[in-house]
TrEMBL record:
Biased composition (Low complexity): 12-23
Family per similarity comment: Belongs to the TRAFAC class TrmE-Era-EngA-EngB-Septin-like GTPase superfamily. Septin GTPase family.
Record bears the keyword Cytoplasm: yes
Matching InterPro entries: G_SEPTIN_dom (IPR030379), P-loop_NTPase (IPR027417), Septin (IPR016491), Septin3 (IPR008114)
Compartment(s): Cytoplasm
Keyword DNA-binding appears in the UniProt entry: no
One MF annotation (Gene Ontology) recorded for this entry: GTP binding
Protein name: Neuronal-specific septin-3
UniProt cross-references to Pfam families, sorted A to Z: Septin
Annotated signal sequence range: none
Organism: Oreochromis niloticus
Region annotation Disordered: where it falls in the sequence: 1-34
Limits of the Septin-type G domain: 59-331
Protein keywords: Cytoplasm, GTP-binding, Nucleotide-binding
Amino acid sequence: TTTQIIQRHSVSHAGSHTAPHSGSHGHGGSHSSSGGSTLLGYIGIDTIIEQMRKKTMKTGFDFNIMVVGHSGLGKSTLVNTLFKSQVSRRSAGWARDEKIPKTVEIKAVSHVIEEGGVKMKLTVVDTPGFGDQINNDNCWEPISKYINEQYEKFLKEEVNITRKKRIPDTRVHCCLYFISPTGHSLRQLDTEFMKRLSHSVNIIPVIAKADTLTIEERQEFKQRVRKELEMSGIEFYPQKEFDDDMEDKSDNDKIREAMPFAVVGSDKEYQVNGKRVLGRKTAWGIVEVENPNHCEFAQLRDFLIRSHLQDLKEVTHNIHYETYRAKRLNENGGLHPISSAETQESNL
C-alpha cells in the first residue's frame, strides 16, 4: 500500500481556479508530485483542531502535580505562584504552624481553575514530613506507594466490563522535587529519591529559594547538580529517550541544559516602576518572581504549563502507566474484570 501526501494549495481570489500545475485536469482532478497530490477544493480536514478544542473546552481536563522536599523550601508558595491562586494545601485551611509529622504523609487538595473558557481540575499533592526526620531512611516509600495506588485505581477502572465514559484521572503527572539551595551538592536523600522514582513519575528538579544564592553561585550549583544527577544515572523530565523527533530534541536539549530551574515563589504583589509585580521584599530591594534577570520562575512556568503540560500527561499515560500496567498484567496473568462494588471498595 502506498500512502500519498495530498496538499491543497491556496487558490487565487482573482477568479482563476486553475490548479497550480499544468496537466492536472487530465488525471481525474489531481496531479502527483513528489509522492503527493494537489486538492482542487476545500475539504475541511483542518477543522479537526477546532473540533478537538471545543470538546476539551466542554469537558475540561485534569492535571495532578506533586511537590516533594523538606519543610521550609517554599513548596506551597511556589505552587500558588505558578497557578496565580491559593491552590496549595496550606492555603486550603491548614494552619501554618502545624507540627511536622513524624512520618511522611500524603495530602491532596483539588481546585477547578478556569481561564479563557478552559476548565482544569488541578490537584496538588503535598508530602509533609519528607526529609524532616533525624532518620530519613525509606521516606520515599509512602510517596512511591501513593503514585502506584493511583495507577492501580486507573487500571481497575479500565478492566471493568462496563467502563465509565471518562475514567477519573488521579495519576501524578508531574513531581516537582525541591532541592535545598546549599550551593554545595545534593544530599544523599535527593539522589536516592530521584533514582527510585524517576522510572514511575515525571520528576522535575528545582532549586528552591534561589534568591539566597548569587548569580555565580547559582550557575555553579546548577552545573554541579546536573553533573551529580548524570553520574547517578538519574533521568529527569523531559527524558532524552522520549524525544519524538529532531525538533523535539532541539527544544528539549535547551530545557535540559537550563535545568534545574532556580526559582523564587511569592504570592505578594509590590509596586515596581509603576507596575504591580509578584515579588519578595528584602532590605536591599524587591526580588521580582517573573523577572528572568532575578530568577528562573518564568522559565519553569512556561515549560511546565505553556509548552509541556500536555506532554507530561502523555508521558504519564503512555510510558509510566503503561509500564505499571504491563507489570501488573504479567504478574496476574491478566486482571479479571471486576464488579462496580469492588471498584467502590478500592476507592474508599
